[in-house]
Amino acid sequence: MDKDTTNDPRAYLHGRGLSEATRAALGIKVATSNGPPRVAFPYVDAGGKVQAHKVRPIGEKTFWWTPQGVGGDLFNIGALFEPEWSDLPIVITEGEMDAASCVEAGFRRSVGLPDGWDARNSKIGKLEPYIEQFRRSPRIIVAGDTDEAGAGLARAVFNLLDTHPVSVCSWPDGCKDPNDVLQQHGVKALVECLNSARPLEAEGAIISGLHDLPVMPPRTIYRSGDALLDEVFRLELGTVNVLTGVPGHGKSTWATWALDQCAKHNGIKVGAVMFETHPAQIRDQLVRSRTGRPFRGDDPRAVAAAASTSRRFAAQ
Questions:
Q1: Rounded to an integer, what distance in angstroms lies between the CA atom of residue 239 and that of residue 247?
Q2: Residue 150: CB partners within 8 Å, gap ≥ 6?
Q3: Dist CA 98 CA 102 (whole Å)
Q4: Average pLDDT over residues 303-314
Q5: Do 232 and 206 lie in a common domain?
Q6: In angstroms, rounded to a whole number, what is the distance separating the alpha carbons of residues 177 and 174?
Q7: Looking at per-residue confidence, does 191 or 309 come out higher?
Q8: Fewer CB within a 10 Å sphere, N or C end of the chain?
Q9: Helix, strand, coil distribution of the chain in percent, nearest 5
Q10: Nearest Cα to 114, choosing from 158, 51, 156?
């Protein structure tokens, strides 16, 4: 059943792959009156007392908290404090639905971040209060999304816990998170993904094995706009380009011109650090390339060219 084509909250959860038993175990509530059809995920404290509910209307990307102004900590946080589960791994996910999916797969100690993760690691504070519980577990399984932020979550957890065993999940093609796997492939496939999570190495948190390296992002190429130059040279974002040649033959001047051309043609800002060239010389080179004459403070055209260059070129 498609998760967004029903107004019945129970059918919606069933379409997401969650059984009644899982819904009851996690205290997930459903409602159809006094508002849109919706589900509510309880956020409890370490003692199991409900502090707030995160409410999600069916088929919408929005949510709200009740009571208003009360945010959540980690979804299903009580599972970290159950003594009988102390020998089970802890699964960290990016949301309530993903944590519930892992519980459906039998991983009872699955917790979810209330608002996902971000590439800036600004939400690490949600995990820091539970370092002791994390370290007491046999291992941590990071079941994040297949995007840049999800990859950052695994690294952040590893760095937070230092040498404690941390593993990271990968998902089948077409799936970005645990709930996608549960919906598209079923419980057995999700169990296999969680059980086969690959450990992060202690040195530098590098994923072990060349076959585990993440897919490279699309290449970003910057052209100069000069047809002849673009035939033999283009800048690629994230790479190192080495320009060599006979001393005193204009390498720095040419490099300055080429950077300026790329900045103008692509609408980007560039920077140059030339240890043997004073910034004033770089300014003079740029002004000469644009006006055909050297920079002079009493030359309005040269001053305008320098000002225009400064908006796209920084030199040190």
A1: 24
A2: 94, 117, 144, 177
A3: 6
A4: 79
A5: no
A6: 10
A7: 191
A8: C
A9: 40, 15, 45
A10: 51
Burial 300-309 (b: 16+ CB within 10 A, else e): eebeebbeeb
Give the chain's radius of gyration (CA, Å): 27
Residue 2: predicted pLDDT: 42
Q: Is residue 119 part of a domain?
A: yes
Please check whether residue 147 lies inside any domain of the structure. Answer: yes
Which tens digits make up the pLDDT trace of 48-59?
A: 889 999 999 997
Q: Which residues contact 134 (CB under 8 A, 6 or more apart)?
A: 80, 90, 127, 140, 157, 160, 161, 164
Q: What is the CATH number of the domain that holds 74?
A: 3.40.1360.10
pLDDT in tens, 192-237: 999 999 988 754 444 555 555 556 667 888 898 888 888 888 888 8
For the entire predicted model, the pTM comes to 0.64
What are the CA-CA distances from residue 90 to residues 127, 168, 298 (Å)?
Answer: 12, 12, 69
Percent of the chain with pLDDT over 90: 43
Which of 190, 159, 56 is CA-nearest to residue 115? 56
For residue 167, the surrounding DSSP H or E stretch is strand 166-168
Task: Give, rounded to a whole angstrom, the gap between the first and last alpha carbons of the chain.
Answer: 60
pLDDT of res. 204: 46
Q: Which residue has the tokens 């030339």?
A: 274
Do residue 158 and residue 265 come from a single domain? no
What value does the mean pLDDT take over residues 37-42? Answer: 94
32 in any annotated domain: yes
